[in-house]
Amino acid sequence: MIASIAETNKIVVEKSTVPVRAAESVLDILSANHRSGVRYQVLSNPEFLAEGTAINDLLNPDRVLIGGEQTEAGHAAINALCSVYERWVPHEKIITMNTWSSELSKLAANAFLAQRISSINSMSAICEATGADVSEVSNAIGRDSRIGPKFLTASLGFGGSCFQKDVLNLVYLSGSLNLPEVAAYWQQVIEMNEFQKRRFVNRIISTLFNTVTNKKIALFGFAFKKDTGDTRESASITVCKYLLEEGAKISIYDPQVKVDQILLELKCPSVCADPKQVNDLVTICKDPYEAADKAHCIVICTEWDAFKDYNYSRIYDSMMKPAFIFDGRQLLNYQELLKIGFHVDAIGKKINRSPALRQRADSKP
Q: Looking at residue 30, what is its pLDDT?
């Protein structure tokens, strides 16, 4: 469309995350269809906006990447785009490079973040097996200035539209470049992410006396992370998939995700082959208290801040006993929950009730 209407030279800016060398393909298409005398420069300017903080990320970026041809015309185009950003971004935060480096840098950034999540999640499995506390381990690791603390919170795993897609893009790219060892390395990041979700559900099943069939499970959170209604690649979907396969009755509460979106995700053939099973076994609730009423356990799947402030004494009283909480986001105050009477299970931790707490819980009606 650009080529069909452009009458003067144009700079085309590639903003989306794309496979490496996509700009070359765009330029080939434009060049093959251009009008006489019209020339194009295609720049790579990937965005680093996270859902929930996108406006702040735009106004206060860590860096701005601009990639283009390393020619006189390419440098002129790069400088033109730099002048736009320099209206609010300090010059030293604007990084210029060749087109392919810019495209690869975006993929690499997301892949490295996903890798950190899978790495700390692998540690969480070791912590559960040994009695170490993954929060203490991640704190110790994060104090190393070479590593830093970000993206070192063990959890159900990463979700959203970017991380898995970009890691798989690297896997494909590595394979196409005849680098099978590199492809296998990045594929393992995805494998660990899936292993973490499967492992979490297995713990739920084993803790609930090796079966969840016809047991009500309250699932708190369906978005892939807090402060968004986005459910793409959400860990909650995978958790529901495995629980539905076991015949569990799932009551779901999320403060932002719409009912239709939840049902759309769960009725996808890759999640549940029979949409009728979703209708029979899944209930979407208007508040957490409804979701937890007569439930055998609560499963925390999204780190919504509001989940920390609920009246868990009220929730406990309404649940079947023994009442369990499985925290997939290391979100809640476990000692307070233990005092109420809950049995608590959390990623990367072994949480044991003291004899006094067990006696107090057992004495409750």
A: 78
Q: Say if residues 61 and 95 touch (Cβ distance below 8 Å).
A: no
Adjacent-strand bridge partners of 12: 42
Structure tokens of 142? 């994060």
Strands 64-68 and 216-220, bridge-based pairing: unpaired
Count Cβ neighbours within 10 Å for each residue of 121-153 and write b for 16 or more, e otherwise.
Answer: bebbbebbeeebbbbebbeebbeeeeeeeebbb
Q: What are phi and psi of 148, to 5 degrees?
A: 80, 165
Please, are residues 43 and 12 in contact by the beta-carbon 8 Å criterion?
yes
H helices of the chain, in order, are 2-5, 22-33, 54-59, 72-85, 99-130, 134-142, 163-176, 180-207, 235-245, 259-266, 275-281, 288-292, 312-318, 334-340, 355-362
pLDDT band at 165 (very low <50, low <70, confident <90, very high): very high
Give the DSSP letter of residue 34. P
What is each CA distance from 344 to 25, 173, 214, 255, 282, in whole angstroms? 53, 43, 21, 23, 24
Give the rounded distance of the alpha carbon of 231 from its chain centre: 9
CB burial of residue 85 (10 Å; 0-12, 13-18, 19+) = middle
Q: What strands lie across the sheet with 64-68, from one edge to the other?
A: 10-14, 40-44, 64-68, 94-98
Element (H, E) at 250: strand 249-253
Query: Phi/psi of residue 151, each to 5°?
Result: 60, 35
- Per the document, the length of the chain is 365
Where do we find the tokens 């009008």?
A: 35
User: How open is the CA angle 164-232-62, to the nearest 5 degrees?
Assistant: 60
Q: What residues are annotated to the active site?
A: 162
Please, which residues bridge with residue 67 across strands? 44, 97
Check residue 199 and give its pLDDT.
Answer: 97
Distances (CA, A) of 95 to 13, 80, 106, 325: 15, 14, 13, 47
pLDDT tens column, 293-315: 999 999 999 999 999 999 999 99
Which residue in 53, 52, 117, 63 sits closest to 94, CA to CA?
63
